[in-house]
Amino acid sequence: MKNMRKMTFLSILLVALLALVAVGCTPEEEADEQPGDEPTVQEAITIGYVTWDCAIASTHVLQTVLEDAGIEVDLIDPNASLLYEGLANGDIDVITTAWLPFTHASYMNQVGDQVDDLGSNYGGEARIGLVVPAYMDVDSIEDLAGQADNRIIGIDPGAGIMGAAESAIEAYGLDYELLDGSDAAMAATLADAIANEEEVIVTGWAPHWKFGRWDLKFLDDPKEEFGAAEDIHTIARQGLAEDAPTAFEIINNFHWEDADIATVMDMNSDGMDPKESARIWVDENQDKVQEWLQ
């Protein structure tokens, strides 16, 4: 009889334990839960960028700061038109290098009412145009005639500066061919030409590390086909402030000066991995980073 009572008790205990397992909880786990406890929600965002040197620098620095703050960050690098399309449809949360009011005006005209412009994040003066080595004997676009084998070395065909260059060729009546490629290919062509003191014309913009490495000049643009001085803006998708408030505050506070971005671009141009150069800059500029985190 005693053994039967023991077996009955064990059977009841086993049934109870099986019931707890069935609802996904053990007695210890149940005891640990407190009324009102909610799981921590991890914010996650996607930053989009085109592989221009200025965008690579700012994107990886912002990524590093956000990840240090516990936010999951994915990067995506489509062409410029897909970048803005992604912002508008919500596939991309933020970009850090919208050149306004001229270079990226066509993109903003298409999606401006579907995104949030957070304003300028760059304290210097940004500009675009045609750039040549200082040793070339030409100072204005309107004086171009036969230099550099009648070729202008461009970047990716979807870039705003390429559209401006095409307009300039037409407006100034230039018999020049605009060659598309990439930021890296343009810089490599420029480096080779300068090493041999050859003529070369490139689509250029500042801020860019090439101005710190070589003696270059923008050609005068009296027709203002490349616009005037610009700002570099941060653009976010609508609703980001509600969906990821911590990330949004950091992004909204993000702002740096010409010397900051130049430092990061210089490290990248020397072959350093962008994540590593971003890490170095963030560690060495915690006073500025703390302003973004407030």
Radius of gyration: 28 Å
- What's the helix-strand series? HHEHEHEHEEEHEHEHEEHHHHH
CATH-defined topology of the largest domain: D-Maltodextrin-Binding Protein, domain 2
How much helix, percentage-wise, in residues?
Answer: 40-55%
- Largest sheet geometry: 3 strands, antiparallel
Strand percentage lies at 15-25%
Average pLDDT number: 88
> What's the architecture of the largest domain in CATH terms?
3-Layer(aba) Sandwich
Major sheet strand order: 3-10-4
* Class computed from helices, strands and strand pairing: alpha/beta
General shape: globular
Amino-to-carboxy terminus distance: 72 Å
For the record, the count of structural domains works out to 2
* Overall number of strands: 10
The CATH homologous superfamily of the largest domain corresponds to Periplasmic binding protein-like II
Question: What's the tally of helices?
Answer: 13
Note poorly predicted spans: 1-41
Give the C-level CATH assignment of the largest domain: Alpha Beta
Q: Can you characterise this structure?
A:
- It is a single chain.
- By secondary structure, the chain is α/β, with parallel strands linked by helices.
- It folds into two domains: 144 residues, Periplasmic binding protein-like II (D-Maltodextrin-Binding Protein, domain 2, 3-Layer(aba) Sandwich); 92 residues, Glycine betaine-binding periplasmic protein, domain 2 (D-Maltodextrin-Binding Protein, domain 2).
- The protein is built from 13 helices and ten strands.
- Strands 3-10-4 form a three-stranded antiparallel sheet. A three-stranded antiparallel sheet has the order 8-5-9, sandwiched between helices.
- Helix 3 packs across helix 11, helix 3 crosses helix 12 and helix 11 runs antiparallel to helix 12.
- The longest helix has 21 residues.
- The protein is globular and about 60 Å long.
